[in-house]
Amino acid sequence: MEYTKVIIILFLFFSCKTAIKRDTDIVQEKKEIESVNVEEDNHKSNTEKDTLTKVESQKILEFDVKEVLEEDMIGLSFNEEEKEVLKRYTYDVSGACYSCDIANVKFNHKEVILTNVCEDSEKRVFKIESIVKKEKTYEILFTQENQKVKLFIAKVEEVPIYRVQLDASFQEVDNFQINKFYMIKRDLKKLEVHDCGDFEG
């Protein structure tokens, strides 16, 4: 009888020990999973922070769209390695003096007008549906072959220089390439490179 009691006690002892070990393993595994999830969340959070920081570092200045209405805007080249603003942006010699495939841009309340940089008679005109200010950027909605297209314009330098972006709906037109940066024609002389100069294209 005593022998049987000893066997039962030993059996219960080892059963409890195994159960405790199993529970410990489960807890440990759960901690490891939680640890991995926290690291992934932190990584995601840091990525989002980096993205936000990058966006915030892009200087967007307050401006009134009246500054550019009825003005001839000329496409610029951009060299991010230059520190001086008036050297960082230059007249687009390649597009304007050699390939002649870029567009000057003009806005009024009714139309977006693209003019080939080398041929004033070559134009593309699009009807404007609306001009809406969203924070510091203006969204110009216009129609291109029955397709709604959004053009975004923002002021990025006090000079002043403007950034122009079109959404994916825009269909590119040969010899009317849109530059990323533009400047009002009368301000061009502020730039170090402001015309074709002695370039022979």
Structural features, described:
- By secondary structure, this protein is an alpha+beta fold.
- It is built from three helices and nine strands; from the N terminus they run αβαβαβββββββ.
- It has a nine-stranded antiparallel beta sheet with strand order 2-1-9-8-7-6-5-4-3.
- 15% of the residues are buried.
Query: What is the molecular shape?
Result: globular
The major sheet is characterized as: 9 strands, antiparallel
Q: Please compute the radius of gyration using only Cα atoms.
A: 32 Å
Strand segment count: 9
What's the helix count?
A: 3
Low-confidence stretches: 29-45, 47-56
Helix content: 25-40%
- The secondary-structure class comes to alpha+beta
What share of residues are in beta strands? 25-35%
- Overall average pLDDT: 81
The largest beta-sheet arranges its strands as 2-1-9-8-7-6-5-4-3
Q: Terminal Cα separation, in Å? A: 112 Å
Helix-strand sequence: HEHEHEEEEEEE
Question: How are the SSEs ordered, and which strands pair?
Answer:
Elements: H1 2-57, E1 73-78, H2 85-88, E2 89-91, H3 93-99, E3 103-107, E4 111-116, E5 123-134, E6 137-144, E7 147-157, E8 161-166, E9 181-184
Antiparallel strand pairs: 1-2, 1-9, 3-4, 4-5, 5-6, 6-7, 7-8, 8-9
